[in-house]
Amino acid sequence: MDGDVATDGRDAMVTVADVLAAQARLRRYLAPTPLHHAERFGCWLKLENLQRTGSYKVRGALNALLAARERGDHRPVIAASAGNHAQGLAWAAYRLGVAAITVMPRGAPQTKIAGVSHWGATVRLHGDSYDEAKAFAAELAAQNGYRLLSAFDDPDVIAGQGTVGLELAALAPDAVIVPIGGGGLAAGVALALKSQGVRVIGAQIEGVDSMLRALRGDHALREPVATLADGVRVREPGHLTQHLLASLIDDIVVVREAELRETLVRLALEEHIIAEGAGALALAAGRRVAGRRKCAVVSGGNLDAGVLAQLLSEVRPRAPRRPRRRHRELPATPPLEPAIATLPTFPTTTPRAAAVVRAHEELHA
């Protein structure tokens, strides 16, 4: 296992037992998020955009802080994030009374920066990408003795994200689609569901597919392209998550940027669900995934209002395919029973109404 994995010297192995332990910790703080059937997409949606702080990321951050408290680790926590992990950490630290510092790229959405500040965490803006922010956070952690909490490459974080999969088990899906940036959500969900025979499919955006390339043996670092899905714009995927997904993931679908934009607008207009770019990514990949009972994780909903307004003005989604009409023969009407024929009859009109009808007929004769 690569030495860069942020495990604080702990065993980097993550198991289903860790996911179950995370569920027990989080139960008193986080309610399960709802499921929604998007009929026009032919897909169920796990609405993590309705989670605390608007993203699934709060699960991993909160589980990591709770697990650290159980181990007696009370150090301040620092994390690098494009926004959602920072917000989840800020909320969790506020609830537990832990000092938290977040390092975010200078181009992070204002909605996410404001969300972190709201919960009292210290915000440092550094670099133009997640990877530059991550390097600066690691430097600050080493200088000050902080606990560096990876957004995805930490056993406690992966176990916390896996609780999404445990909540999906009741749906009994045959396929679950999850967005992949560093791989924490995909690894956790796969841990939770693979023993039940559920196919777990990853979704990445074209030009931001470092996990797919790494799993194919291509570990060259390439600068990810600019994308609406800023939450998955990761130059280097997690090492621990790579190890897990190598044996757990069934497939990874790469989505074009135009597909993602159209899906996000359709979600807003047809399903009345606001998702950020990364949040709509799994559903965009869903059209290429076969399954009678498939489910896409809407991972977050922290979308700037200006971005949404621009998308609604620029993107004209194609009309959805008309549903197939299912013909079903109705059972034959049973004959009237003899007793019904003996029921008394009643006049259907009054004398005054009959006179009006006759006058109308004479007028138009």
TrEMBL record:
Residues 318-328 have a biased composition (Basic residues). Its cofactor is pyridoxal 5'-phosphate. Keywords: Lyase, Pyridoxal phosphate. Pfam families: PALP. Residues 29-292 form the Tryptophan synthase beta chain-like PALP domain. Residues 317-340 are annotated as: Disordered. This is Threonine dehydratase. The lineage of its organism: Bacteria, Pseudomonadati, Pseudomonadota, Gammaproteobacteria, Lysobacterales.
